[in-house]
Amino acid sequence: xxxxxxxxxxxxxxxxxxxxxxxKDLDRVNHQIDAFIxxxxxxxxxxxxxxxxxxxxxxxxxxxxxxxxxxxYVTEDTIKTTYDAMxxxxxxxxFQALMIGQLYDYQPSTALxxxxxxxxxxxxxxxxxxxxLKMTNKNIxxxxxxxxxxxxxxxxxxxxxxFAGLALMATADETIDRxxxxxxxxxxxxxxGIKSGWGGANSCSTSMAILGYLAIRENPRTVLxxxxxxxxxxxxxxxxxxxxxxxxxxxxxxxxxxxxxxVAYKIYAEKSIYVNLFN
Length: 279
Hints:
mainly alpha; two-stranded antiparallel sheet; 14 helices; 54% helix; 4% strand; globular
């Protein structure tokens, strides 16, 4: 009887002191993150290349107390020299420069000048165009019109779950109707993850949904009928991700996006902090 009471007291104390069960698959999440850092990180973040997703994810790990430092892979002087010298012929390159520069409290003047040259953005670029203007507080008229276009779906504009995940991150700090974005994701649910607008479930669409949900403070494991973290892990092989199941690993697009999604989830699971990769 005394032994039973002792066990009960210990269990009650565990609850009072905040002891909780480790989230499902967290060891697998950490294994894939560690494998990526050990094998692939230096190819994505170095003095010659800075992948947006990977760089931002590493910065988030450092921000929330994990033992990693961007300065071990790329210097601030290199960042400034690189992005001052770039030719900005697309909103995508401007956006990358601003998002990486933000980590160093720096906005390349050449990127800002190029941003002034835009009077509109194509549908697929509404999110990054809007966020670029929002970050720099430029062209309020274009910023507002782009935001409005982003929030309204026109017929045959081909937006999908990838677009929705990006839009959720870009507007996470705003009071808006997210029905369009959430619907684009929920309509794309598959037993293996999230589908793109033109194929089956893939790691990129699944990653964008995870990042979007975390940005709006939703758990990507429970918000849909499929557990997005378990689904994403199935695309991984020792730190690298396939685009679709059964394919070879894709280091160009799938791996950096999938890595950043696992990092955002890791911080949520271990620190109870909802991470917005765009913030």
